[in-house]
Amino acid sequence: MTETHRAVVLREPGRARVESVPSPPPGPGEVRVRVYAAGVCGSDREVYDGTRPDGYVTYPLTPGHEWSGTVEAVGPGVDAALTGRKAVAEGFRRCGACARCRAGETNLCAGPYAETGFTRPGAFAETVTVPAALLHVLPDAAGLRGAALLEPAAVAAAAVLRGGPLPGERVAVVGGGTLGLLAVRLLAAYSPAELLVVEPREERARVARGWGGVRAVAPGAAAGLAGAYDLVVETAGAARSAVDAVALARRGGRVVVTGIPPGGAAGIDPLELSMRQVDVLGVFGAPSAAWSYAVRAFAAGSLDPAELVTHELPLDAYEKAVGLVGGGDPGVGKVLLRP
């Protein structure tokens, strides 16, 4: 009898149901992981709505790219000692041979785009199968609830690494959603002279202020702080957030753009960049080095994404979970599906 597991299957945008799907043994170089929890983010909403850009999603699909779990089976060529270990895994199925992969920029692989939860079966399921080379093993005592958010934590880590914060600098984060708050946690470890969060939702701003040493203001109030910050990390992905981030940077400052804006977003004035000599850097996903950084911070106890979780729902509530994300409810933080 063929082994099966339950999974969300999105046949096309807006048409999903939980089905029994085959659970083949992991192939050479692969591991099969029993999913503990999987996070739902804005890109999952795009996949459901059908608004993700062409080439970055393949239907039918089992979504889910933020997850944690326990290795339950290994394929040929994989160390059997991984069985039973708690783990997370990178999503990009990099080729490992192109110039970008060789340079360590695995998120910029020049091969055909392939990513767990977008073009390959994801973790809105009881199990997920991934290449063992993408696995990051966690300590035995690690909390899998918080570990489910290590994917956005890795993206935040990528932004921090690109920005290169130095102790004593004035740092601002534009956007207080999951990505922004995770970036704040990582940036705080660099002992900034000031750490500002620009966030319009009072509930999110309240969370940031509760961490101690963090100042949180609404976008309108931030206008009076133009040119004051050495490093600005943009995570909001709003129509004007990249422009607002550049405005906050001092002359000669650095801006890291992490959020993915909607079509028609306001562009950055090139005169601003040249006359004020502002360096603008972009982040798309996370390379392996950023994943390792986030996992180390989590294992050391200096980063606990679990505090951002507000909702945990069963697999059958997938459509409800997607509806909560981006629905505008200020009480909704991070939403998890628990298979």
What does the model show?
Helix 4 (150-163) crosses helix 5 and helix 4 (150-163) crosses helix 10 (288-299). This protein has helices at residues 42-49, 99-102, 144-147, 150-163, 178-188, 202-209, 219-222, 241-248, 270-276, 288-299, 318-324, and strands spanning 4-12, 15-22, 30-40, 66-74, 86-89, 127-131, 135-137, 170-174, 194-198, 214-217, 229-234, 249-257, 279-282, 309-314, 334-338. The longest helix is centred in the middle third of the chain and has 14 residues, at 150-163. The mean pLDDT is 94. It is built from 11 helices and 15 strands. By secondary structure, it is an alpha/beta fold. It is globular, with a radius of gyration of 20 Å. Helices cover 26% and strands 27% of the residues. It has 2 domains: 4-148 and 304-338, Alpha-Beta Complex (Quinone Oxidoreductase, Chain A, domain 1); 153-282, 3-Layer(aba) Sandwich (Rossmann fold).
Q: In what range is the share of β-strand residues?
A: 25-35%
Q: Quickly count the domains.
A: 2
| Uncertain regions spanning at least 5 consecutive residues | none
CATH fold node name of the largest domain: Quinone Oxidoreductase, Chain A, domain 1
Total E-strand runs: 15
Mean pLDDT: 94
Ends distance: 23 Å
CATH C-level category of the largest domain: Alpha Beta
Radius of gyration: 20 Å
Class per helix and strand makeup: alpha/beta
Sheet bearing the most strands, described? Answer: 7 strands, mixed
Please work out how many helical segments DSSP would assign: 11
